[in-house]
Amino acid sequence: MIFRTQSSIDALVFNGKPEHVVNPWEIIINTDEETIVVKKRNWHLIGKDEQLLAFRFIRNITIDQHMFGADIHIKIMGGKISAYSIPKKDAKTIREILNNYNQTKKGKSIIFS
After folding, report:
1. Among the listed residues 69, 72, 75, 23, the one whose alpha carbon sits nearest the alpha carbon of residue 50
2. Nearest Cα to 69, choosing from 3, 17, 2?
3. Which residues, other chains included, contact 98 with Cβ-Cβ below 8 Å and sequence gap of 6+?
4. How confident is the model at residue 60 (pLDDT cuts 50, 70, 90)?
5. By C-alpha distance, which of 108, 20, 35, 1 is closest to 69?
6. What is the full DSSP assignment across 18-39?
7. Range with the lowest mean pLDDT among 18-22, 59-63, 90-94?
8. Can you give the pLDDT at residue 29?
9. Is the Cβ–Cβ distance between 86 and 68 less than 8 Å?
10. What pLDDT, on a 0 to 100 scale, did the predictor assign at position 79?
11. Quick check: 60 and 15 in contact, CB under 8 A?
12. Taking residues 11-18, what's their average pLDDT?
């Protein structure tokens, strides 16, 4: 299953990040390949910066909800990736997808505790 979402324009504006309207964050969860990709168009608007990580490196998931939208921070071994101003519903869905996936891996390879 592939789940894809990106920053909401309304949330970016109301949360004080209007400069990111032309280059919002995009997060893609792929349970088949067990990967998370966070993409963001660079400031030159020519290419996209991309961070790819495997589920097995996830240590913690934090969702910071605002009045409009939510920020999701995924702590990984050796760092952290973030996507800002995504819809609250999508942030909860990402947490549920990863938690449900984690429940199916009990005993074998738990992705986070």
Report:
1. 23
2. 17
3. 29, 55, 58, 61, 111, 112
4. confident
5. 20
6. GGGSSS-EEEEEETTTTEEEEE
7. 18-22
8. 93
9. no
10. 83
11. no
12. 81
Written as six digits, the tokens of 73 are 């921070």
Q: What is the DSSP letter of 16?
A: T
Give me 40's structure tokens: 């963001």
> What percent helix, strand, coil does the chain show, rounded to 5?
25, 40, 30
- Helix (H) or strand (E) segment spanning residue 81: strand 79-86
Bridging pattern class, strands 25-30 and 35-41: antiparallel
Confidence of residue 108 (pLDDT cuts 50, 70, 90): low
Classified as helix, coil or strand, 95 is helix
C-alpha dist (Å) from residue 59 to 54, 74, 80, 98: 11, 8, 10, 11
Q: In the predicted model, what is the mean pLDDT of residues 49-54?
A: 88
